[in-house]
């Protein structure tokens, strides 16, 4: 996304989050919720799918293998975005910084599973900076990680993720959003598998509607 488009989206997100975000509506028996106000998406001409998550969330850890397999099958007209959630908690903010640090280094997809494993299997407290930097040195370039972790760019991305979460009124994770209009969770869809099935259906719906437009 170019700078002008990014600033335009950021301005729209700021305005929407200041108004309290978009209200949800869900019909009985429907496996998703619909936003009253559409949230701006990143890439024109593509169907945006967002996963809201946190490395510290055990349900996100369980969902990750399913999600990774699903992303391998995405068609070219889908723009998939991961957005780490902080819930304005310092420890979760640090976990969000891990994601954006790895993303900036081009290693988020490669090392994401290792972050989940370190937290949920090895019980490492990666939300603590000293523990994190020691761990990072065992999996990647420690100086590059440290410099990126402390960068203004990463801090800005975390702030932007908070605005996106506020616009969607995210209250739990994992949660997925489709085309800036639809919200899907295990609660609405019945299971993690149900989430992905519903997302696929909503992507097809968005594609059909764009084709008619």
TrEMBL record:
<dbReference type="InterPro" id="IPR013766">
    <property type="entry name" value="Thioredoxin_domain"/>
</dbReference>
<feature type="domain" description="Thioredoxin">
    <location>
        <begin position="4"/>
        <end position="154"/>
    </location>
</feature>
<protein>
    <recommendedName>
        <fullName>Thiol:disulfide interchange protein</fullName>
    </recommendedName>
</protein>
<dbReference type="InterPro" id="IPR023205">
    <property type="entry name" value="DsbA/DsbL"/>
</dbReference>
<keyword id="KW-1015">Disulfide bond</keyword>
<dbReference type="InterPro" id="IPR050824">
    <property type="entry name" value="Thiol_disulfide_DsbA"/>
</dbReference>
<dbReference type="GO" id="GO:0042597">
    <property type="term" value="C:periplasmic space"/>
</dbReference>
<dbReference type="InterPro" id="IPR017937">
    <property type="entry name" value="Thioredoxin_CS"/>
</dbReference>
<keyword id="KW-0574">Periplasm</keyword>
<feature type="signal peptide">
    <location>
        <begin position="1"/>
        <end position="25"/>
    </location>
</feature>
<comment type="similarity">
    <text>Belongs to the thioredoxin family. DsbA subfamily.</text>
</comment>
<dbReference type="Pfam" id="PF01323">
    <property type="entry name" value="DSBA"/>
</dbReference>
<keyword id="KW-0676">Redox-active center</keyword>
<dbReference type="InterPro" id="IPR001853">
    <property type="entry name" value="DSBA-like_thioredoxin_dom"/>
</dbReference>
<feature type="disulfide bond" description="Redox-active">
    <location>
        <begin position="57"/>
        <end position="60"/>
    </location>
</feature>
<dbReference type="GO" id="GO:0015036">
    <property type="term" value="F:disulfide oxidoreductase activity"/>
</dbReference>
<keyword id="KW-0732">Signal</keyword>
<dbReference type="InterPro" id="IPR036249">
    <property type="entry name" value="Thioredoxin-like_sf"/>
</dbReference>
């Amino acid at each position: 996304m170019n700078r002008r488009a990014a600033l335009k989206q950021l301005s729209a997100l700021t305005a929407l989050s200041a108004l309290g975000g978009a209200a949800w509506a869900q019909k009985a028996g429907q496996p998703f919720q619909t936003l009253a106000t559409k949230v701006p998406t990143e890439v024109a001409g593509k169907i945006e799918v967002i996963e809201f998550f946190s490395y510290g969330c055990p349900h996100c850890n369980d969902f990750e293998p399913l999600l990774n397999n699903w992303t391998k099958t995405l068609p070219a007209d889908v723009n998939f975005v991961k957005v780490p959630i902080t819930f304005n908690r310092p420890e979760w903010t640090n976990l969000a910084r891990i994601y954006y640090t790895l993303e900036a280094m081009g290693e988020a997809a490669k090392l994401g599973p290792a972050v989940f494993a370190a937290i949920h299997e090895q019980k490492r407290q990666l939300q603590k900076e000293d523990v994190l930097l020691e761990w990072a040195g065992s999996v990647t370039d420690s100086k590059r990680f440290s410099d990126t972790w402390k960068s203004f760019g990463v801090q800005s991305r975390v702030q932007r993720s908070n605005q996106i979460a506020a616009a969607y009124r995210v209250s739990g994770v994992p949660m997925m959003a489709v085309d800036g209009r639809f919200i899907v969770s295990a609660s609405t869809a019945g299971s993690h598998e149900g989430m992905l099935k519903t997302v696929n259906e909503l992507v097809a719906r968005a594609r059909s509607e764009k084709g008619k437009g």
